[in-house]
TrEMBL record:
GO CC terms of this entry: mitochondrial inner membrane
Keywords: Heme, Iron, Metal-binding, Monooxygenase, Oxidoreductase
Residues that, per the record, bind heme: 480
Protein name per UniProt: Cytochrome P450 family 27 subfamily A member 2
Keyword check for Iron: yes
Record bears the keyword Oxidoreductase: yes
Family: Belongs to the cytochrome P450 family.
Cofactor(s) demanded: heme
Gene responsible for this protein: si:ch211-113j14.1
Biological processes annotated in GO: C21-steroid hormone biosynthetic process; cellular response to peptide hormone stimulus; cholesterol metabolic process; cortisol metabolic process; glucocorticoid biosynthetic process; vitamin D metabolic process
Gene source species: Sander lucioperca (Pike-perch)
GO terms for MF: heme binding; iron ion binding; monooxygenase activity; oxidoreductase activity, acting on paired donors, with incorporation or reduction of molecular oxygen
Length: 534
């Protein structure tokens, strides 16, 4: 039970702030040249620097070549594919310079592992000076994305316990199941309104609302009604702002400061952030007012994540505001796009869909709502999500700025402050890591059942990928804070959709390719037919 007078806050739920613990992955498969060095002895490294090659020795495209690739060859919104093209041209490590960017790209799992292993105690992802400028402009506190080193760690340590701990996350299953219930109603409503009484014409758009409602339900333990017939205006405003912000984010960084008064990008970026922050603040204020009212009536206030953050006394109120905004932002188009792609492939792969629905129905007969225990008995469901994330990693290229250490990669030495681009898309589409890498084959994640397996042993190399060739949520202390929640959301939504519907593509539906808009998203709407199962 929690109250929200200052005294009650201090007294109740003074949860100890746990340190973020890195997920353990098997040691990287490193060759003799690529040996991991976690805590580099910087002095020793510096003395080696003279003997090693430097960033200037790296191959890479000139500015004009990059412009050609982006704007003539059309890779501006296909930067995930450009990773593979450049890897073939320049090898596994290359340099790109473009506007203010000077980046070292690494595209093998061994090199990605090496960068991560040298990331230090407080890993930094990328230059987000424009996010920081926005916060400064509005006099707002820094959140996870912008806070430096120990400050980031303090915020992150406050978030982790109730977001990432395996014992804590199942507590959110009942409310997520309610949101999934709304999603099912929404699908039913849309299909019944469609011309053929079966089609939902833009599945991703519906799932954005689902993602927003799901994260809000955990943060605020309240239902916003994002999947009702009448969508709340603020929900649409938030979703539109996510789209704008992510679309113009890189462009804002690219153009010099002086252009901000002339070009529209900075203005749009600021407006989008105003909307994101404004909607989050309205929701927080509303919920705090409700909690205060509950407390003054002597009613218990418990369970929700916002209450936990406020009562932990680790974050200031303005830090809570920005952090909640970031969590909402993280929740909108990550799970939703992954679910859209999963449904897209299941609709086209009858065998996989039958197998999944058989698994779900055998664990939860008669459309019983799955619990988290039930999910643990659905390996194929998890394999479908993994395979979807492998084909369409939401974050196709991640970043690390070596802010604490100099970094050694094979024969190369890089000074502190080097920006690395970790080419995840290229790594998880690499035939050397994944046989038939462009195909949707969930079985590759089921050890004993990989295609070609004999007596329970998979075909050689089928699943023997390097652990860093598939890290869709990142790895280490800076990995995705929403991972457990995201997985649970996706498992519950997909299993229940399978209980209720057979999913089919629209007749003559086009092939949908992904495109990059900071995150990897479908380039066209995904239309699906939902046919009720008997
Ligand atoms: C399919 C679902 C998702 C995927 C694949 C995904 C992936 C990622 C990745 C790759 C990162 C960067 C990790 C790193 O730098 O090592 C990240 C960070 C983050 N994610 Fe997620 N994410 C997902 C869902 C979510 C959800 C649902 C939330 C919110 C509840 C969320 C909140 C965040 C936040 C706040 C960060 C920044 C963490 C930090 O900087 O400390 N994500 N995510």
């Amino acid at each position: 039970m929690m109250g929200f007078s200052a005294a009650a806050r201090r007294a109740l739920l003074r949860l100890s702030v746990l340190c973020a613990r890195p997920r353990t992955l098997p040691a990287a498969r490193a060759g003799p040249e690529l040996r991991p060095r976690r805590n580099l002895n910087v002095q020793a490294t510096s003395s080696k620097a003279g003997k090693l090659k430097s960033i200037d020795d790296l191959p890479g495209p000139s500015l004009s070549t990059t412009l050609y690739w982006l704007f003539v060859k059309g890779y501006a919104d296909k930067s995930h594919l450009l990773q593979g093209v450049q890897r073939r041209l320049y090898g596994p490590i290359w340099r790109s310079r473009f506007g203010p960017f000077d980046i070292v790209n690494v595209a093998t799992p061994e090199l990605i592992a090496l960068v991560i292993q040298q990331e230090g105690r407080y890993p930094r992802r990328a230059d987000l000076s424009h996010w920081q400028e926005y916060l400064d402009l509005r006099g707002l506190a820094y959140g996870l994305h912008v806070s430096p080193g120990p400050e980031w760690y303090r915020i992150r340590s406050a978030l982790n316990p109730k977001m990432l701990k395996l014992q804590e996350v199942p507590a959110y299953a009942p409310i997520i199941n309610q949101v999934v219930g709304d999603l099912l109603h929404r699908v039913e409503f849309l299909r019944s309104r469609s011309q053929d009484q079966a089609t939902v014409s833009d599945m991703a758009a519906e799932l954005y609302k689902f993602g927003f409602e799901a994260v809000s339900s955990i943060l605020f333990e309240t239902r916003l009604g994002c999947l009702q017939e009448e969508i709340p205006r603020d929900t649409l405003r938030f979703i539109a702002a996510v789209n704008t912000m992510l679309t113009v984010s890189d462009t804002v960084l690219l153009f010099p400061h002086w252009s901000r008064g002339v070009l529209p990008f900075w203005k749009r970026f600021v407006q989008a952030w105003d909307d994101l922050y404004g909607v989050a603040q309205t929701l927080i204020d509303r919920r705090i007012a409700e909690m205060d009212a509950q407390v003054s009536c002597g009613e218990p206030v418990e369970g929700m994540y916002l209450a936990y953050l406020l009562s932990s006394n680790t974050l200031s109120r303005t830090e809570v505001n920005i952090t909640v905004t970031e969590l909402l932002l993280g929740g909108v188009d990550t799970t939703s796009n992954t679910l859209s792609w999963a449904l897209y492939h299941l609709a086209r792969d009858r065998r996989a869909q039958d197998r999944l629905s058989t698994e779900v129905n055998s664990v939860c007969p008669d459309r019983r709502e799955p619990t988290t225990d039930d999910l643990s008995r659905m390996p194929y469901l998890k394999a479908v999500i993994k395979e979807t994330l492998r084909l369409y990693p939401v974050v196709p290229g991640n970043g690390r700025v070596s802010s604490e250490n100099e970094v050694v990669l094979g024969n190369y030495w890089f000074p502190k402050g080097t920006q690395f681009h970790l080419c995840h898309y290229s790594a998880c589409h690499d035939e050397a890591e994944f046989v038939d890498a462009e195909l949707f084959v969930p079985e590759r994640w089921l050890r004993s059942e990989a295609p070609g397996s004999v007596c329970g042993r998979a075909a050689p190399n089928f699943y023997q990928h390097h652990p860093y060739s598939f890290i869709p949520f990142g790895v280490g202390v800076r990995a995705c804070v929403g991972r457990r929640v995201a997985e649970m959301e996706m498992y519950l939504a997909l299993s229940r959709l399978m209980q209720h519907y057979e999913v089919q593509p629209e007749p003559g539906a086009p092939v949908v390719e992904p495109k990059t808009r900071t995150l990897l998203i479908p380039a066209k709407p995904i239309a699906l037919r939902f046919l009720p199962r008997a």
